[in-house]
Amino acid sequence: MEHAIRKHCTVHHDEDPAFYKSLSEKVENLIDQYKGHWDLLIDELEKLRTEAIEGRKTGQDGMTKEASIFFEHITNETFKNTKISQDTKIKMQDLMDTIVDTLQDSIGSIDFWANADKQKKARSNIKTAFMLTDIVELKKNRERVNGESFLYLGRSYRLSLVAGQKADLKLKQGRFCLKRSLIDQGGELAAKKAFETFYLTKGENRLSKRLDYFAPRVGVKPAGLKVKDLGFRWASCTKNNLVQFHWKCMMAPPKIVDYMVAHELCHMHHRNLKR
Q: Per the confidence metrics, is the pTM higher than 0.70?
């Protein structure tokens, strides 16, 4: 029964993250509390299983059930180590009501899921609502969420938060799959690090091959390759013929990547290409 509850919480997590996370924690607490008292544990787990199957029944504090789902999840992520004040709580509730109204108005359109413009407008309205809020913590702790898009080699891929994945970040089946536990434990900083590592690894592999392809055609021999954060520069070629690329180059289309590679190799013939 314990495993059945855990599986149910994992499968339905995205429907109500805060609710199913709390149920998972209740399972752990019950096992510790009734250790050795198996009959009592089974009774309590049965009650919890029923609660899991039924899901959240009503809203709270005057909010709808849908607004409550957003409210609990976002406040849990935003105020992990701080207590939310009553004033901020009221502002958060108003914000969640606004977001739910926006979603219901948008999704209620017959062709919403087939209309990219309507989807883009809905995302824009929600982002605007977040941007206009004066809740400081929301602006500081904005989480990467399901549906946000990221570029790789000129194409945009949606982000999905997934459970049970070994790698922190994978690109598979047309989506960026980010390990959910990474967000839970490290927040946005951990997510940014995962993306940076992904682009660094992919960059070293692809750019190395493109250097090998273009170098003999340009008639040069680079001393090596480095992919790292170059600040405001896309790429550079040192006086020792070390070619360096910003990891963000991997967001550009392949033709642009090739152009940057060829451009830096040409620096070995002409150090200042502006002349």
A: no
